[in-house]
Design brief:
The structure holds 2 protein chains of 2 kinds. By secondary structure, chain A is α/β, with parallel strands linked by helices. Chain A is built from 12 helices and 14 strands. The chains are: A alpha/beta, B mainly alpha.
Chain lengths: 318, 251
């Protein structure tokens, strides 16, 4: 089933600017070892109402791209707009349209949760925001922490406050930079329910994450970055359809024979090997039998986004 | 409240929540200076011919406290936010460079003037200098606090680490305030050091400020006003330029 929002966005036509538009973005840094290109000619649009995933290994340039979007860094070349507003020349309008949840767990130790949120609202010129702040606190499971000083909160709670801070001014575009890194299951679920609701209400969401199952479950479209370049950009469903259709999964305590080890993805006891058809499955099983490898919990399943990701990033080495 | 007013209010809250350290401590330091130097020199030194040393010292200490605390406020707030990373909350807002400047400098001025007033009130137990031309007191206190608040903003933007900030404070701000005539009249110096003192804008701030109390000064108050006013505009222009270009804020 195709997601609804991008179609509505497309149907609305050219009178609605893209929620976010990256046009020929390059960014280079001068390092002691010479010029380093963090981003090279990155271009893509995110339509209004989309839930968009930005994936890539560490150092691929995801955070740099988001920093340029948020005005925290300047592009060496190219232009970024948010809801049609240039992030440099029309920065005030662009930033009003944008809510960023930063990757780093930062907080102001001088203030309580509610004070932090009131102050953040004030920076955006939003007055009498207490009703919305209370709603945010409730949806993010922070209601009983409103008066706590930021220093007293656990890491997970601080993360929730960061999400609330990004949303105080009700931005149409929400950017989450690895929001669930090191976060417990409960918060992940609370967070995704809330963000999914906001997306249904029309907010555009841009997400970077290392948890590919989250991206697969949530994102309508996905862009993959590798060494500062866009290497894939498609609907999630099409990315999944375009890869080898089946995966053979099993558990084993033994080492795989060399011919299989090269193509297998091993996580602890679990091994996954790509299989194109039934013959392929038979061949793999025969090889395992021949090498006297004992397998448990054997199953054949569909490839997931992680398989696509690894294939695009160049084999099982990512 | 407009965005800059919220930032101003946040900056006030920031120092007020730790006022023991940011207001009470510098008042105590100034009073200790007064007790020690006043005790040692009261009977030996007369300034401008007739003014008792303790009485002379009080305006100097008040102004020194105003200047140092105005500087400390904007500089320490910025460097702390940079190092802990929470400056990002401000960087993602639509606030302009004017808003940043107005909020940081105004909050610095409030802290500087608050500490100055505190020093004045406490030192009143030791001596009360006359207030011959009070308008100069107000003008130089406000301009001096504004200039040091702006200088603190520049230092806070420039410094990447706490020790760079400490170097700025200890090797630039401290010598310039101490050598500006807080503790002495520059007329008592040898001619060479008098000339050097006249190149230090801090000298004019303290001299002009003291003029308001005693009606006597080493330099003309109008010259002092011109020097301090031009210095303030210059420093403010640099601070605004750094903010507008995102110096060390937006790479």
């Amino acid at each position: 089933m195709h997601p609804v929002a991008p179609q509505t966005a497309a149907a609305a036509g050219a009178d609605r600017p893209p929620a976010v538009s990256f046009q020929h973005i390059s960014k280079s840094f001068t390092t002691p070892r010479g010029e380093f290109n963090a981003l090279s000619d990155v271009s893509f649009d995110i339509q209004q109402g989309e839930f968009f995933g930005l994936l890539g290994p560490n150092g691929a340039g995801k955070t740099t791209l988001i920093s340029i979007l948020a005005g925290l860094a300047r592009a060496s070349q190219g232009q970024v707009t948010v809801m049609g507003h240039d992030v440099v020349s029309d920065y005030a309008a662009a930033r009003r349209a944008l809510g960023i949840v930063p990757q780093e767990l930062v907080f102001d130790p001088f203030f309580s949760v509610r004070e932090s949120l009131r102050i953040q609202s004030g920076y955006f010129g939003v007055k009498n925001n207490d009703a919305w702040i209370t709603e945010l606190l409730e949806h993010l499971g922070l209601a009983d922490k409103a008066k706590s000083n930021m220093r007293q909160l656990s890491g997970g709670m601080k993360r929730r406050v960061l999400v609330a801070q990004a949303l105080v001014h009700r931005p149409p575009v929400i950017v989450l930079d690895e929001p669930t890194a090191g976060v417990d299951v409960e918060l992940r679920q609370t967070l995704w329910q809330f963000i999914a609701r906001l997306n249904k209400e029309g907010h555009t969401v841009l997400l970077t994450t290392h948890y590919l199952e989250e991206a697969e479950a949530l994102c309508h479209r996905i862009a993959m970055l590798k060494q500062g370049k866009v290497v894939a950009l498609n609907r999630t469903s099409e990315l999944l359809a375009g890869t080898a259709s089946t995966m053979l999964r099993f558990k084993t305590d033994q080492a795989l024979p060399a011919s299989l080890a090269a193509q297998a993805r091993v996580t602890g006891r679990i091994a996954q090997i790509k299989a194109h058809d039934a013959e392929d499955v038979e061949r793999i099983l025969a090889t395992l039998r021949g090498a006297e490898v004992k397998v448990e919990d054997l199953e054949i399943g569909r490839a997931d986004l992680e398989d696509v990701f690894l294939e695009i990033m160049g084999g099982g080495q990512a | 409240m407009a965005g800059w007013q919220v930032l101003f209010y946040k900056e006030l809250l920031r120092f007020w929540k730790v006022s023991f350290q940011t207001v009470a401590a510098p008042v105590l330091t100034a009073v200790l200076y007064l007790m020690i130097f006043g005790h040692v020199l009261e009977d030996h030194v007369k300034v401008y011919g007739t003014v008792a040393y303790t009485s002379f010292l009080i305006p100097g200490l008040v102004m020194m406290s105003v200047l140092q605390n105005a500087f400390a406020n904007s500089s320490s707030s910025l460097i702390q936010s940079k190092i802990t990373g929470n400056l990002v909350f401000l960087l993602v807002t639509p606030l302009s460079h004017w808003a940043w400047f107005a909020a940081y400098v105004a909050a610095s001025m409030v802290r500087g003037l608050m500490v100055g007033l505190g020093v004045f009130i406490v030192t009143a137990f030791f001596a009360v200098p006359p207030l011959v031309e009070p308008w100069w007191v107000i003008i130089f206190a406000v301009l001096g606090a504004g200039m040091l608040g702006s200088l603190g903003l520049i230092a806070g933007l420039w410094a990447d680490k706490f020790d760079q900030m400490a170097a700025f404070q200890n090797f630039i701000i401290m010598p310039m305030t101490f050598l500006s005539g807080v503790f002495y009249s520059v007329h008592s110096l040898p001619p060479f050091w008098q000339t050097v003192s006249h190149l230090n804008p801090f000298f004019y701030m303290i001299d002009g400020f003291r003029r308001g109390f005693f009606g006597v000064s080493d330099a003309s108050p109008w010259l002092s006003l011109a020097v301090v006013g031009i210095s303030f505009v210059g420093v403010a222009a640099v601070a605004l330029r750094l903010l507008a270009t995102g110096y060390k804020l937006r790479n």
